[in-house]
Amino acid sequence: MYSIAITANTSWYLYNFRKNTILAMLDKGHKVYAIAPRDTYSKKLEALGCMFININIDSGGTNPINDLCTLYDFYRVYKEYRFDVSLNFTPKNNIYSTLAAKVVGVKAINNIAGLGTLFINESVPSKIARALYKYSQSKADFIFFQNEDDRALFKSHRIAQNVKSDRLPGSGADLSRFIVSPAPDDGVTRFLLIARMLFDKGIGQYVEAARALKSKYGNSVEFRLLGFLDVDNPSAVSKAQMNAWVDEGVVNYLGTSDNVEAEIAQVDCMVLPSYYREGVPKSLLEAGAMGKPIVTTDNVGCRETIDNGVNGFICEPRSTKSLTDALDKIITMSHSERLKLGINSRRKIENEFDEKIVIKKYLLALKSL
User: Fold this and answer.
1) Same fold, 3-172+355-368 and 189-352
2) Quick one: three-class SS letters along 41-109?
3) C-beta of residue 111 within 8 angstroms of C-beta of residue 144
4) Rounded mean pLDDT, 32-40
């Protein structure tokens, strides 16, 4: 049995994205330590049966002093606890946890869940981050990629060429929790976008499309948003901006929720017009599992969830017109036609994105190391 550290930049992430992985490792008799900044979800992680260790991570910041402190904190924790292996999620954990683990002799399994704007921007912080990624990932013992685009990007940049790797179907969907839930057939077509409220996620294009389609169809269409607002990110939507959109009557902002399945159940279609380098978006997997059509961009990580015209529609990144046209197709469909797309979504998730596939691959990777 192993002593396992599982790390991310928020306790919220570990609980919402890796809960069943943690439970599976505990069920196998492993001792699991959750390492993340303390938040309201830290107690929930402890309630699962793992130990919680607080660590400071400035996840959106570029201050090198803060990052050096994070590196030292990981080193201090790893030296004290002497884990057998660390499972790392989110960018700074992939970098600093891996470096600390290597020094102490802890194995590192990393998860590349999308690379955001890291390999797009040419700013000084992005160049430094790329260099850190290149150096740190060569020290990993195993790397999981969530899509082939990121795997190919690592290869083209000669990153971690000698490290074993495998492809995961995103973070998977819990098919027992997210069950087929048809939207009400009441003459209103409802759309939902779940994400951190970042312009890079296509929030601006979604609002513009909503404005055009509400002008065309009035109250027979509704556009909802769910997710963290005013986050620590240069692309963040501010509270003032969101309030202005809500006051205009273009969108309904739902805040955040631990019961996202209840929100997904009410809508006809899930939307994510992201041009951010995604892993595979969890919201699309969960909506697909619940039998919802999907509209998303021909973008890294997003396109994996769509068979165009079969379970939804692909649109062009950054194009309000392309997004509007795709959403209009959903609106003009009959309720039964939308349900048919949704059943195709469920079938695709069952075949390709079952969370059990992810958990099995993690358990095998642990065994191999």
Assistant:
1) yes
2) CHHHHHHHCCEEEECCCCCCCCCHHHHHHHHHHHHHHHHHHCCCEEEECCHHHHHHHHHHHHHHCCEEE
3) yes
4) 97
> For 334-357, how does the pLDDT look when each residue is reduced to its tens digit (9 = 90+)?
999 999 999 999 999 999 999 999
For domain 3-172+355-368, say whether CATH 3.40.50.2000 is its number: yes
pLDDT digits (tens, 9 = 90+) for 160-203: 889 999 999 989 999 999 999 999 999 999 999 999 999 999 99
Output the six-digit token pair for 136.
């740190």
Q: What residue type is 149 in one-letter code?
A: D
124 pLDDT exceeds 90?
A: no
Q: Into which CATH architecture does domain 189-352 fall?
A: 3-Layer(aba) Sandwich (3.40)
pLDDT digits (tens, 9 = 90+) for 278-287: 889 999 999 9
> What is the rounded CA–CA span in Å between residue 328 and residue 311?
15
The CA-atom distances, in angstroms, between 232 and each of 185, 197, 267 are: 39, 11, 29
User: How many angstroms separate the Cα of 169 from the Cα of each of 87, 301, 351, 359?
Assistant: 17, 10, 10, 11
pLDDT recorded at residue 221: 98
Instruction: Tell me the CA distances in angstroms from 174 to 16, 188, 364, one per residue in order.
Output: 11, 28, 19
Q: How many CB atoms lie within 10 A of CB 202?
A: 29
Average pLDDT, the chain: 94
Residue 119 has pLDDT above 70, yes or no: no
Which residues partner with 110 through β-bridges?
Answer: 88, 143
| pTM greater than the 0.85 cutoff | yes
Q: Is 364 exposed, middle or buried (0-12, 13-18, 19+ CB in 10 A)?
A: exposed
Q: Which two tokens stand for residue 229?
A: 């607002």
Nearest residue to 33 via CA among 72, 70, 81, 95: 81
Delimit the domains of the chain by residue range.
3-172+355-368, 189-352
As given in the structure block, the two tokens for residue 268 are 């006809």
